[in-house]
Design goal:
Helix content is about 70%, strand content about 0%. It is built from 3 helices and no strands.
Length: about 80
């Protein structure tokens, strides 16, 4: 695992400390790593949606209703 030195604003540092003090996390590093994992998952979902939009734009017209398309997108994102 690589070590980094980063600086936080006072409000962010206090929030990180509160997460550790609440016993939710063992360290500030654990909090930051969890936030990064969450951001990566969110980015994967965004990338999938962008890919689906591109596919849709390139495929032409659909006979599916707006609700059908929305349901299909949600199913794809949620697995």
């Amino acid at each position: 695992m690589s070590r980094q030195s980063i600086s936080f604003t006072e409000p962010n540092d206090q929030w990180l400390k509160s997460q550790v003090e609440s016993k939710e996390y063992a360290s500030k590093s654990e909090v930051v790593n969890d936030l990064i994992r969450q951001a990566r998952k969110q980015q994967q979902k965004i990338d999938l949606i962008q890919q689906k939009i591109e596919q849709a734009e390139n495929s032409g017209f659909s006979n599916d209703s707006q609700q059908d398309i929305l349901n299909q997108a949600r199913k794809s994102v949620n697995g």
